[in-house]
Amino acid sequence: MADILANLNRVQERVASAARRAGRSPEEIRLVAVSKTVGAERVREAIAAGVKILGENYVQEAQKKIEAVGHGVAWHFIGHLQTNKAKVAVRLFDLIHSVDSLHLAGELNKIAAQTGKVLPVLLQVSLSGEATKFGALEKEIFQMVEGMSTMPAISVMGLMTMPPYFENPEDSRPYFGALKKLSERLTQQKIPGIFMKELSMGMSSDCEVAIEEGATLVRVGTAIFGPRS
Q: What's 163's DSSP letter?
């Protein structure tokens, strides 16, 4: 518990310092504690230390953890979502960061409508062109939001991206800046039902740069829970 609390305090200070440097209020940025591979007991410790949002990458792992820990916090899905896991994901998660196709969006919309839920989602954008990174290409996003604007059971709240890994966090800045610009262009379109309130970007190594470029959600795991086994 002590190490998680100390780690969380350090991360929160990093977030606050980066926000102030950018002339932003620290309250504008929410911390998503990435609990992939972290056991339920450690997750409970993180909640006791003050974590409000937990981020999971795998539906099956998350399902067991959420059943053990409960819904006293918000649970976000941040990994690649397969359509055959969409039904469980709609039930479990408060926000899905990684919608990367109209096909997946349509499946989520259908399932959410059946359960009487309006599901908040973010669109995952691939800005690097890496074959190993999931996400829709920038040129596909405008077509996606047009299609999703007609889906009443999902609410598009913003964008998410994962830049390539760099030793120097500054090298991530162009990707974060590009996501911010894309968000602004989508806002100018004034598409009904499409809101660009959230930018999910930045992790343990580069969250400060992401905040300086406009992140509202930063996904931090290692800096809170320690190195993964």
A: P
CATH topology of domain 2-224: TIM Barrel (3.20.20)
* Cα 99 to Cα 35: distance, rounded to the nearest angstrom: 20
* pTM for the predicted model, two decimal places: 0.96
**Residue of 113, 68, 65 whose CA lies nearest to 87:** 113
Residue 77 has pLDDT above 90, yes or no: yes
Number of other residues whose CB lies within 10 A of the CB of residue 36: 17
b/e map 81-105, b = 16+ CB within 10 Å:
beeebbbebbebbebbbbbbbbebb
List beta partners, residue 53: 74
Please, how many CA atoms are within 13 Å of residue 208, restricted to the half-sphere of its CB?
Answer: 16
Q: Render pLDDT for 91-114 as a digit per residue (tens, 0 to 9).
A: 999 999 999 999 999 999 999 999
